[in-house]
Amino acid sequence: MLLALILMIGIYPPSAQYPPDPLKSHGTVLVDHQAELKAVDLPLIVSSQLDKEPNLLRYLTWLLGDDWLGADWMYIGVGEYRFPALNEKGQQLYVTNPLTGVKTAQWKYARFWTDPGPALLTTSDTLWVWGYNAGLHGIYADSLLIDPPSRIAPPDDVTAFGRVITVSGQNITIQDPAGIRSIITVDPDTAYNFPKGVDLPRPKTGLWLHISWLTGTIGLLGRYNGFHGSFRGILRLDFSKP
Fold first, then answer.
1. In CA terms, which of 19, 29, 97, 212 is 20 to 30 Å from 150?
2. Nearest 5 degrees, angle CA 222-CA 55-CA 42?
């Protein structure tokens, strides 16, 4: 509760409108032929958004990590929750020792879990959007296809498409190849089609605490879900990893 109060007081002022850092999870912006980004655009994005993460939030993520931003669940246990690392066929990955031939199963670990939603998007993602066009480049999304094959053109019934620029709460800003930006608004009924393995369902085993009221997309700190990442922080006492 003390952490929640500190977060609410320190980084939730009504006037704080900070768009997410577009380069938080990626050293460069990846571009496909559907959304070419001019070289001159990159420094503009950096200068306009890189320093707008609230200072207290930046400090807290350095200490505690950024995987809790946008999270819907927190695992209650001594260590992090362990689950299999899977290949594209849904089979567990193994690493084979070239000297002994012994296979070692590969695992992933999570203290926080994020349900399919805007927090799982990154600035390298391309979206195809179906929904209601409200005009003035505002769209209420019924469904999103994330990272479709780059060599396939969007179908005629797509409402909008483009590369993700920012994510904040239920609003996703995308930019199409012509440089036109649209704000995509999602809600709990919006359907997401992520690449396989990205939006894994939350494990049914283990004890998970529902925290979306605080850190989830529609929670008190939902506007910061665009900063969601995989950094664990320097003070996290999770000793489950080998």
1. 19
2. 80
Nearest to 125 by CA among 22, 217, 228: 22
Q: For the whole model, what pTM was predicted? A: 0.72
3-state secondary structure of 49: helix
**pLDDT at residue 73 greater than cutoff 80:** yes
Distance CA 103, CA 91 (A): 14
* Per-residue b or e along 137-176, where b marks 16 or more CB atoms closer than 10 Å to that residue's CB: eebbbeebbbbbeeeeebeeeebbbbbbbbbbbbbbbbbb
4-14 pLDDT per residue, tens? 444 444 444 44
The secondary structure element, H or E, covering residue 6 is: helix 2-11
- Rounded Cα distance between 160 and 172, Å, is 12
- Spatial contact of 22 and 49, defined as CB atoms under 8 Å apart: yes
Phi-psi region of 227 (alpha: psi -120 to 50; beta: other; left: phi over 0): alpha
